[in-house]
Write a structure and sequence with these properties.
alpha+beta, 4-stranded antiparallel beta sheet, 8 strands, 30% strand
Length: 215
């Protein structure tokens, strides 16, 4: 393969990775007695891997034993995929069986006095979740072949993501149509009720005036 072709592939891969969100790494402060939740929209059959640990800004000073995290990962329908009870670090990996927002929540039990912990959290999904070093090792692939396989998997991931977004758009459109239909029915029912109440009021006033011989 010629050098220009290689450069074109690398540039294309770079552009795809820039415009495609396939991973997220962050560091945040967590106050005792409070909860921080992070959500990621994951489609069915997509792989996800993540790791987290408490970051000690005063290294190498050790953290007190009471500085522990509680971590819970739930699916869009409430299924628990990971639970860490009073831990300083951990990781999780799974293949999504439900499409939607997967949520990871961190919290610390109350401390007196209150404490603030820094947490490093890395969450990768899709192509970024694969262990490419292991793929290259097992398949004995050359660097070029590995880059091409990354590019192919990235394109497939984008293709699947487009169809997934189309499905979500169709679901939203169906929801909007259903909501509009219900609102139309509710509006018609409101008009009928108003007309019925108005008719009853007119009948009541007419009966009252007739009884008082005002008509």
């Amino acid at each position: 393969m010629s050098k220009p072709m290689f450069e074109l592939i690398v540039r294309t891969l770079g552009l795809i990775l820039i415009y495609t969100k396939i991973g997220e790494a962050m560091r945040f402060d967590l106050h005792s007695g409070r909860t921080k939740c992070i959500s990621e929209d994951i489609k069915t059959n997509s792989m996800t891997v993540a790791s987290y640990h408490i970051f000690n800004q005063n290294e190498p000073s050790p953290l007190p034993d009471s500085y522990k995290l509680i971590v819970k990962v739930t699916s869009p329908y409430g299924s628990t995929y990971h639970y860490g009870d009073h831990v300083t670090s951990g990781n999780f990996a799974f293949t999504a069986v439900e499409s939607g927002d997967y949520t990871t929540c961190f919290w610390i039990v109350d401390h007196d006095p209150p404490v603030v912990l820094s947490v490093d959290f890395e969450w990768r999904t899709g192509v970024a979740a694969k262990d490419w070093a292991d793929v290259a090792k097992k398949g004995q692939l050359e660097i070029m072949e590995l880059e091409l396989k990354k590019l192919y998997d990235t394109v497939v991931s984008i293709h699947d993501e487009i169809f997934y977004l189309r499905e979500r758009e169709e679901e939203m459109q169906q929801l909007n149509r259903s909501t509009n239909t219900r609102m139309t029915g509710l509006g018609f029912l409101s008009i009928v009720v108003c007309l019925a109440v108005a008719g009853m009021q007119v009948w009541h006033l007419k009966t009252y005036f007739e009884r008082k011989k005002l008509l």
